[in-house]
Amino acid sequence: MKPAILVTGAAGFIGAHTARALKLAGEEIVAIDSFSNYYSTELKDLRIANLLTPLGVTVARCDISDSDALKKTLEDKNISSIIHLAAQPGIRLPVERYGQYVSANIDAYLNIFTWGLKNGIDRITYASSSSVYGNYPKAPFSESFADIKPISFYGATKLANESMAPTIIRKSKMKARGLRFFTVYGPWGRPDMAYFRIAANLISGKPFNLFGDGDALRDFSYVDDTVNAVIALHNELESRPAEYHDVVNTGGGIPRTLAEMINIAESQLGLELQSNVSAKHPSDVERTFADATLLNSLIGKHTPTPLESGMAEVIKWAKDPKVSALISNWTETTV
């Protein structure tokens, strides 16, 4: 059997879709996840049952912030490279819960790199975020910007990851690449995200909590586009020399407003969303807008999935009886 790609965070939204795509491409997969209760574990179980179980992929339970647990889980596995997608997501955890970001985004990150170095892994691709840009005054956001300042603690941990990687892999054979994800959406997504709540609340008739007036710009990235970028960038990294490190935007560079997304979903369902409007959250950035120049130079130019097409897939998924009966409950399990 050929060596496997280790996918961390494989019960998560991007992780499960990535593990599925890799398996469909003929790769061997080792999939692990902590199954944290940040949002519904029922949703995570159903995500696995629908995306991974039919392909014979199982997800081992492992909290990688525990280095001993990580070592034990992987001790008999033949791993060739790592796609590290496990993290504490979201920007709205209160300060008294910031330790969750540190454990999942710093401690676990260091552990997976350390394990990789000790076990001869020469390639690791890891999740960063567009949150590292904060409210940068220029757009589109380029990887070349040197003075970026996150405005959320989550974004700060991701920028820390990017700073840590070159120092960790120094004087080793490992190469690493950080992927700055931009507002990824799609079926089997995360219930703390606006698009998920919009679909859920339209179906349930419950009011949507709208922070601000809906004019915030987001570079919405359909999950299939993001997964294709993850895998292509991981493959491209193989050609790089030891100690190489870079970061790459994975957004398509076509920002839209939240109000536009709401209008699209309303039109597709033939329903009107009821909203409770409150002030913009202090950790919400004004816009995300990817410069896709580097991405296109590395893996070839791609045409992003239009928001209308992507939301049609979300609505189709949300209307499935096995989802629609539960989707409203899932949105109540997050911050």
Automatic annotation (TrEMBL):
Q: Does the keyword NAD apply?
A: yes
What protein does this entry describe?
A: Unannotated protein
Domain annotation NAD-dependent epimerase/dehydratase: ranges: 5-240
Protein's organism = freshwater metagenome
Entries under InterPro entries matching the protein: Epimerase_deHydtase (IPR001509), NAD(P)-bd_dom_sf (IPR036291)
Q: Which UniProt keywords apply?
A: NAD
